[in-house]
Amino acid sequence: MRNLKECLQSLQNGEIQILKQMSKMLLSGSVSEKVLAKQMDDLLFCMENQCIRARIALEQFRPEEPGAGQPYSADVILDTAGSLEVTSEGWLHITLYTLLPNCRHKVSNYIGDTIARLLAGCGYELPYFEQAFMGIVEYCSYENHNALDNDNKGWKMIPNALKGRVIEDDSQFCLSIGLFSKLSEDMRCEIYVMPIEEAPVFVQMLCDNTV
User: Fold this and answer.
1) Which CATH code fits 74-211?
2) For the segment 142-181, what is each residue's pLDDT rounded down to a tens digit?
């Protein structure tokens, strides 16, 4: 119990840093959009990293339940962050209930950590591709997007989370990547991983709105 209290005190220090960052935003008199954007990114960076620290730190104290497969309940991730399945075509399909973060300033590994946990808690055999195509499809509108320009979208943590479990490597010879957007008021990010030779099938299905 003592170690748990020490762990909680350490996490509390992280919460204090989040509150300090939030207070900094509240007290800021700047009207610059660039300054505001950086302050928002700094706050999200602190909050998302704190979430990852809490996930890792508290898992060691979770009581083991009979028959429990993972120390961290996969249902929590599935309910709040996303879902994972293997399609009838044998493709890996991951849904994130959020959009890719804007990477102009700071980006945490929250999405990468979430995907890694979805993979670990899926409960069935995952496909493995020596040469793969990964299609990332963001569903958003002009009003609710996180980053309009593709070069400002933080997607690089996704292949890192897949490496060694679904793909051999994320080098350009092992993994090809497509980044797509669909206009929608229902914000989400859909990720598909498949054999490289089936990429044309995916693109055609995307054009036909059948994925």
Assistant:
1) 3.30.1330.70
2) 888 877 788 888 899 999 999 999 999 999 999 999 999 9
